[in-house]
Amino acid sequence: MASISPSLARKITSPPVADAAYPGGTKVNGLGVEDMFKQIMEVVQKSNAEIAELRQECSDLRHANNNLERQIREGLTPGHHNGSRGAITPGFMTPAPGSPNLRAKSPFLSPGAVPALAMPPSIHIPSPLGDHTSYPFGPIREIPGFYVVIPAGGAGTRLWPLSREGHPKFLLDVTLQGRSLIQSTWDRLLPLTTPSRTTIVAGAPHMKAISEQLPDLLPHNLFCEPGPKDSMAAIGLAAAILARRDPNAVIGSFAADHMISGDDAFLSAVSEAVQVAKKDYVVTIGIAPSHPSTAFGYIRLGEKLDIEDAPNARIVQSFKEKPDARTAKAYINTGNYRWNAGMFVVKASFLLKLLKTYKPELEEGLQKVAAAWDDETLRAKVLSEVWPALEKIPIDNAVAEPAAAEGRVAVVPATFGWDDVGDFSSLADLLPAEANQSRVLGDHHLVLTEQVAGGIVVPGSGRLVALLGVDDLIVVDLPDTVMITTRARSQEVKRLVKKVKDAGWKALI
């Protein structure tokens, strides 16, 4: 119920007084009891009407704001400028050396031609520090002694049912450009290293698909983990194996399922990070935030480091967990925070040294596995004994955060575009569409809309999907499953996956 005004409250709480003109009863400040309650109800009804009107205005403003944001995103074109945010440049363009460039009508990389789709422009945000310097590349970008580690895991819950446990999002071509996310990650990093120094850590169910998508990946560089133990065990395993192969190895860990635009800026940041890592730092790459996101962790920038060939490197003052909206906005306003994209560059031996300090049992277990790795029979035996007992913990909590408290973590603030494709809402932003129309991931001829704005449709069953008068919907139509939600609730799809599993539909997970 709406609140009563202070003046009326005072009238109600005033003691009743006798009134000769009102025989047989009392009046309150000259009002009869019936009149008093009638006046109260009038005030309440008026307040309720005002609240309903305010709610409608808020709803209209939210709708208008959503439309404005869509128009801004869809209206940006290469070569234009957007105030202080810098030039808009085409993004998500990665070379495709080595592996075959598959074409497909669906994100599953099935054979067949697909119409060429122009990617939306990516916003390159200049450093708020105002003094960002590009790394001075020579004619050859390869960095001797630099090893790439690509952890390829995940249960595929937030892009379900498009992504499944047996076919997670890193195996999908989510922009229909002919390359899956893991293929694009491989392509992007290859200029800095070689196939012989590019490694992948993945689970047994995905080994075959990864080998098929990356034929240039050497078999002894595909590390199979018996079960998911989070990022510290995966990256630590690769570090322990590579440190035995090359005691001076500098490793860079980059997720298999992220998208990046602005390859030169990305390669420049990684090259700087390698130079800093050689000085015994754990180095992360900080992403310039484009909005006050509550979906990412943040890095607080500290003082500059005086390191040759790393003009932008700074000490990490602290890591911040995913904030609420108000805190995220405050972070952005200071200009001293970056998104934490989970990219780490470090000497393999130094990472193991820190791990031994902060998590000695985990480090000991990984060293035992690495010592037996080259003997397949012994490896299987040691893995069965050691792996189940390893602590399941992210690298951020195991090493990065405690090391940052001791001044051992650095950050290279970068300016490339980045997206972790964390849900269908972010996926929708990566796909082209006519103004105020739904994005389509698949065959456009299978989708018909009328008075529909925003959202994304995945027509994967071969059936026609028709939408009328619904905005910002997520519709995933596959042969065995149909999933429908709103764009605003796309982060919650993983809750639906749990219900599907609990209901006995485990074959669909």
Q: What labels describe this entry?
A:
nucleotidyltransferase, Spore Coat Polysaccharide Biosynthesis Protein SpsA, Chain A, transferase, 509 residues, 22 strands, 3 domains, alpha/beta, 33% helix, five-stranded mixed β-barrel, NTP_transferase_dom, four-stranded mixed sheet, disordered N terminus
- How many strands? 22
Chain oligomer state: single chain
Assigned CATH class of the largest domain? Alpha Beta
Structural class by secondary-structure content? alpha/beta
Tell me the overall shape: globular
Helix content: 25-40%
CATH topology of the largest domain: Spore Coat Polysaccharide Biosynthesis Protein SpsA, Chain A
**Gyration radius from CA atoms, angstroms:** 28 Å
Ranges where pLDDT stays below 50 over 5 or more residues in a row are 1-14, 16-25, 71-104, 110-131
The major β-sheet equals: 5 strands, mixed, barrel
Mean pLDDT across the residues is: 81
- Strand content bin: 15-25%
**Per CATH, which architecture of the largest domain?**
Alpha-Beta Complex
* Distance N to C terminus: 45 Å
Largest sheet, order of strands side by side? 11-14-12-13-15
Organism: Stereum hirsutum (strain FP-91666)
Domain MannoseP isomerase/GMP-like beta-helix: 455-499
Domain Nucleotidyl transferase: 149-432
InterPro entries: GMPP_N, ManC/GMP-like_b-helix, Mannose-6P_isomerase_type2, NTP_transferase_dom, Nucleotide-diphossugar_trans
